[in-house]
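Propose amino acids for all 187 sites.
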């Protein structure tokens, strides 16, 4: 058993019989009261967020997890099929585990899957992807002076916001955590 001093942001613990991931974690010492840890946690099964106060030195169960880089193959209904690059074993992972980043998944992309024993509990797409714009209104010369954005559809079918000077067939770098374009890429 670990105690509250062994936990940090990103740790996965068993809390009230459920697996939760620590999203925010702060040590507080209010005036003449005892010190405690304030934690914001996200339930890995249903995605609900909760807050809890842990006493300093309180025992918690830190869950042993294994991270694997796997290759995304295709979507099948509510699941993403991913493959282990070493054993070629295929695993079905619920698409909802990817969060908003799931709409940016492309065939052959490397994704990070977290396992507790043999069960997938977390899935992360790459932080940045490169995508080609398949549809957008044509850009005009000189539309670089303002920060105005227009909508564009990328090759995964997802709609994003890009500057006015972007055209079809341009390549963009996208942050999958926010869905925002980062920069234009020359290819």
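Proposal:
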């Amino acid at each position: 058993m670990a105690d509250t001093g062994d936990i940090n942001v990103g740790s996965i613990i068993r809390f009230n019989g459920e697996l939760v991931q620590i999203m925010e974690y702060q040590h507080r010492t209010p005036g003449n009261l005892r010190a405690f840890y304030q934690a914001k946690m996200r339930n890995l099964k249903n995605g609900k967020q909760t807050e809890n106060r842990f006493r300093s030195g309180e025992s918690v169960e830190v869950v042993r997890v294994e991270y694997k880089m796997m290759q995304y193959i295709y979507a099948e209904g509510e699941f993403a099929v991913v493959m282990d690059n070493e054993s070629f074993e295929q695993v079905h992972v619920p698409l909802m585990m990817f969060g908003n980043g799931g709409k940016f998944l492309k065939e052959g992309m490397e994704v990070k899957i977290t396992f507790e024993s043999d069960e997938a509990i977390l899935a992360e797409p790459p932080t940045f992807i490169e995508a080609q714009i398949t549809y957008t209104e044509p850009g005009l010369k000189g539309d670089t002076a303002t920060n105005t954005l227009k909508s564009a559809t990328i090759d995964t079918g997802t709609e994003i916001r890009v500057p006015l000077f972007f055209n079809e067939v341009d390549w963009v770098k996208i942050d999958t955590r926010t869905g925002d374009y980062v920069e234009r890429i020359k290819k």
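Residues 128-185 form a domain with the OB fold (Dihydrolipoamide Acetyltransferase, E2P) fold (CATH 2.40.50.140). The chain has a mean pLDDT of 89.
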